[in-house]
C-alpha cells in the first residue's frame, strides 16, 4: 500500500514538471509564465491627444483615415458622412496613451504571435509631421488581449482587447447612427407623401389655439383637407412613434443608381418640421425620409438632400399607410356652443329656431319661442352638429336641398350657412358657406331632422 502511494506521488511530480516544461517552451500559449515580465504599467507609446492630426485604421478587410480639421474629425475621401466625434475622440485618447499589461521577453518566432499575418496595422500622424505605426497580432490564448508591437521595434506586448478593438473596428463603428432625433413636443409639421396624395398636418399656433371657433384639437390638417386633426389617432398612431431614427445598416454612401433600393421613385416620403434649442436661440429644422423597398424588418431609406442609402427599421414608419379619415375630426361641421346665439333650420317647409340667451355665466334655451331644458337643448345641439363624414364629394352636388342650417354667433363672426344636398341615393353632401367637400349618410340626416322636430314639439 505504501509503495503504491509513493508511485502515485512520483507520477504527479512528473506531470507537474511536464506542465511547466511545455509552458516554458510555448511562450505565446500562456501569458503569465517564465517568458513574461508582468507589470502594472508598461508604457508602449505616449503623446498628447491633441498632438494627433490623423489616424489610420488598416486591416486586411478595410482601411480608412480620420483627419482633424477645425476641431472636428472627417474621413478622408468620405467627408460627407456623419461621424460620432465623441467616439473618434476616444480613439485618439487610446492612441495617445498605449500601455501593456505584459511585456513578452522570450519572443522567439514572431509568427507564433500572428505578426506574419497581422490583424491590423494602424498608424497615426502627429502635428510635427512624424508618423507612428503599430502592428496588431493575433488574440492571446485567454482572449482578453492582443499581441501588439511598434512597427519599428521588436518588443512584443500583450494589450487588453478593449484598447485594441478600436484599432481594428470597421468605419461603421465610428459613424453617427442617429439620422434625426425628434422630440414630439417640438414638432410643428408632419407630412406623408404617398401615391397621388400628400397629407400635411400642422401644430396650431397660439392664436389658433385660443380661438374656440377653430375647434379643440391642437393640430390641424392642411392637405388634402382643411380640417381639425383627430388628436387621438394622431397622438397614438404617429406622434408616439417618433423619436430617434437610428440606422440599422449603412448600405451605400454614393450609389451609382437608386433603383436597386427602390429609391429612384420612392413610394413614400415622410417629412418632419421641428424646433431645436441652440443655447438661447430656437432653430427650425426639417428632415424628409424617402422610403424605398422593404428588406425583411427594415426599409431602404434616403434622407432628401443627401446621397447616402441606409436600412432603418420599418416600424419607424408604420403609419405611412394610415387611413386619412383617422387623421381628421370626422364631424362634418363643429362649433363650440358657447359661441352660438341662434340656429335656424329650414327643412322642406319646416322651420325651427333654436336660441341661446347668455347672461353672464348662465344661459336660457328655447326652440320656436318655447323654453327648453338645458340638458335636452344640448343633446339636440349634438345631433345637429354630429353628422359624420363618410367620404369625399367628387362631383358638384345638384340634388334636392334637404335642409339649410344658419348659425349666428356672439363673437362678431358672420353667419355660417350649412346645407344638406342629396348626393346619390344613399348620401347627402354637406355644403358649408357654399363649399361641399364631404358627404354623410342620408339616414343620419333623416334621423337628425326627425329628432329636431320631436324636440320642437316637446322641448
Q: Can you lay out the helices and strands and say which pair or pack?
A:
Layout: H1 2-25, E1 36-46, E2 52-58, E3 63-69, E4 72-75, H2 85-96, E5 97-104, E6 123-126, E7 131-139, E8 145-150, E9 156-160, H3 161-168, E10 178-181, E11 187-194, E12 197-203, H4 206-210, E13 219-223, E14 227-228, H5 231-238, E15 244-246, E16 249-252, E17 268-278, E18 281-295, E19 298-303, E20 309-313, E21 340-347, E22 350-359, E23 362-367, E24 370-372, H6 374-385, E25 391-392, E26 401-409, E27 416-423, E28 427-432, E29 435-441, H7 442-457
Antiparallel strand pairs: 1-5, 2-3, 2-6, 3-4, 5-9, 6-7, 7-8, 8-9, 10-15, 11-12, 11-17, 12-13, 13-14, 16-20, 17-18, 18-19, 19-20, 21-22, 21-26, 22-23, 23-24, 25-29, 26-27, 27-28, 28-29
Description:
The chain is built from seven helices and 29 strands. The protein is α+β, with helices and mostly antiparallel strands. The protein folds into three domains: about 1-175, no CATH class; about 180-325, Sandwich (Immunoglobulin-like); about 335-455, Dna Ligase, domain 1 (2-Layer Sandwich), CATH 3.30.1490. Strands 1-5-9-8-7-6-2-3-4 form a nine-stranded antiparallel sheet, covered by helices on one side. The longest helix is centred in the N-terminal third of the chain and has 24 residues, at about 1-25. The model is unreliable at about 1-40 (pLDDT under 50).
